[in-house]
Design a protein that fits this description.
Helix content is 35%, strand content 20%. It is of the alpha/beta class. It binds 6-O-phosphono-beta-D-glucopyranose (BG6).
Length: 506
């Protein structure tokens, strides 16, 4: 069955003529991620031959000043060193338009500028509006764009437009619904690209190839053979300079609602009928999210990091971070037990955890298969055989390991677990592109497969609604503590122990 992969192979990689307009062009995301991603796409010759980037934000800058700033960012943040020949071409495609997202007349000026870019080049550019702004500006920018004819209404002409929205997408179910409704007033759903940068990571995309391009795993991929699943998103960094944002959000909103649940959904979906129709994968993801049972109070743990040591360096506790409110109970670590109540997964525990200030940065999905009966090996130093597991490491190293039992050399009949390892860098000898490269290219090609649809967003918030309820003031749900640089609170271990499981040592 190779139908799933066929059409994508033949697709032409280069998008049509495009102008990318970045709102929030002087901000961190643009400097660290977006410009480096666009530069690397240029270096790989993936950009359209007719292409420009229009930075837009409140700071008054000329095109020249924006170019100089962009160059500095690329020197700091590009995954490749700056190549003078590529830069020379790239620089000529950078422009800047001062704009306040809340001032309607600034959008008239933007529209006029964009239209003169097209006229000068005798080209009809598709427009991609990237909202790298504070979420409080998403709706107003969308409204202003539509008002000047660059939103829904643009579809009447040959030119097309789309809007890319960064996370956080809402704060809870109600606000996410409201934001969806507001955006859809000014752009059609097909023009809205909600970005989740984890979906642009190579190993996350590889989940699909791994599951559906190999004949051997799919027959095992169900409650018949799988004992439990663990998904871990661990970071060693603390909240740093983002404390005032994070304190209002917490790790559940910051990581679990989006990155973690998206990865889990891909691990658990039914085979989509095609990889070329964006909705075919997204329909399946929604079904998974919708099938997760309501999360019980006893199956959720939240905690905050205290002072400790990471890599030998002393680190502050959460309450010493600048910007954290006194008495804050915002979680920097959360662990939950989930269950997908459908034919494939019913009864299989799924443990998820995400945390800051853990001993190291690692994102991993581990699938544990059922124990083999050990009776045959009794009396041969084996009382229990190790479980087979498949560990998909998303970062920092990208790869997949399969743990199997094997006989160590020697006269005795014994079994010992060993790893069969596939590491991206060994097999492909290429550095993986940054997630934003893939996602920006897809958005330019109007391929929404790796972007999150409105109903996925709403389902994931709906799933977490009860959890936020348990954590509300007056609910007496404890926020536990853990020492910075450790693997989280003891209560998270107890959660798994209650079901006879243990967190993986990462
Ligand atoms: C972001 C979160 O979405 O993802 C951050 O807001 C987190 O808190 C980051 O650190 C992790 O991304 P990555 O790609 O470094 O794993």
């Amino acid at each position: 069955m190779d139908g799933l992969f066929q059409e994508g192979e033949n697709r032409v990689l280069r998008p049509p003529s495009t102008g990318v307009v970045i709102f929030g062009a002087t901000g961190d995301l643009t400097q660290r991620k977006l410009l480096p991603a666009l530069y690397n796409l240029a270096a790989d010759d993936y950009l359209p031959s007719e292409f420009f980037i229009m930075g837009a934000s409140r700071t008054k800058l000329s095109d020249e000043e924006f170019r100089a700033r962009s160059r500095e960012s690329l020197e700091k943040f590009s995954r490749r060193p700056l190549d003078p020949a590529v830069w020379e071409q790239f620089e000529g495609k950078l422009f800047y338009q001062p704009l306040d997202g809340t001032t309607p007349k600034d959008f008239d000026a933007l529209r006029d500028r964009l239209s003169s870019m097209g006229k000068e080049r005798q080209e009809s550019f598709n427009l991609l509006f990237y909202l790298a702004t504070s979420p409080s500006h998403f709706s107003i920018v969308a409204e202003n764009l539509n008002r000047v004819g660059l939103g829904k209404s643009i579809k009447q002409g040959p030119q097309q437009s789309a809007i890319v929205v960064e996370k956080p997408f809402g704060f809870d179910l109600e606000s996410a619904k409201q934001l969806n409704a507001e955006l859809q007033r000014h752009f059609d759903e097909g023009q809205i690209y909600r970005i989740d940068h984890y979906l642009g990571k190579e190993t996350v995309q590889n989940i699909l190839v791994f599951r559906f391009a190999n004949g051997i795993f799919e027959p095992l991929w169900s409650r018949e053979h799988i004992d439990h699943i663990q998904v871990s998103v661990c970071e060693s960094i603390g909240v740093g300079s983002r404390a005032s944002y994070f304190d209002q959000s917490g790790i559940t909103r910051d990581i679990i609602q989006n990155h973690l649940l998206q990865m889990l959904a891909l691990v658990c979906i039914e085979p989509p009928y095609s990889l070329s129709d964006p909705d075919s994968i997204r329909d399946e993801k929604v079904k998974v999210l919708r099938s997760i049972k309501p999360i019980g109070r006893q199956d959720v743990i939240r905690a905050q990091y205290g002072p400790g040591f990471v890599d030998g360096a002393k680190v502050n506790g959460y309450h010493e971070e600048n910007g954290v409110l006194p008495g804050s109970t915002t979680e920097t670590y959360a662990a939950m037990r989930l269950e997908i109540d459908n034919w494939r997964w019913s009864g299989v525990p799924i443990y998820i955890r995400a945390g800051k200030r853990l001993p190291r940065r690692i994102t991993e999905i581990a699938i544990y298969f059922n124990h083999a009966p050990a009776a045959m090996f009794q009396g041969r130093l084996v009382s229990k055989l190790e479980q087979n597991y498949l560990a998909i490491q998303v970062q920092p190293e990208e790869g997949i390991s399969f743990c199997i039992n094997s006989k160590p050399p020697g006269p005795r009949m014994r079994a010992k677990s060993v790893l069969m390892d596939f590491q991206y860098h060994d097999s492909f000898a290429l550095s993986s592109p940054e997630a934003y490269e893939r996602l920006l290219l897809d958005a330019m090609k109007r391929d929404a497969t790796l972007f999150t649809r409105n109903d996925e967003i709403e389902e994931s918030w709906a799933l977490l609604e009860p959890v936020f309820g348990y954590w509300q003031k007056g609910q007496d749900t404890p926020a536990y503590g853990y020492e910075g640089g450790t693997w989280g609170p003891k209560e998270a271990d107890d959660l798994l122990a209650r079901y006879g499981h243990k967190w993986r040592l990462l």
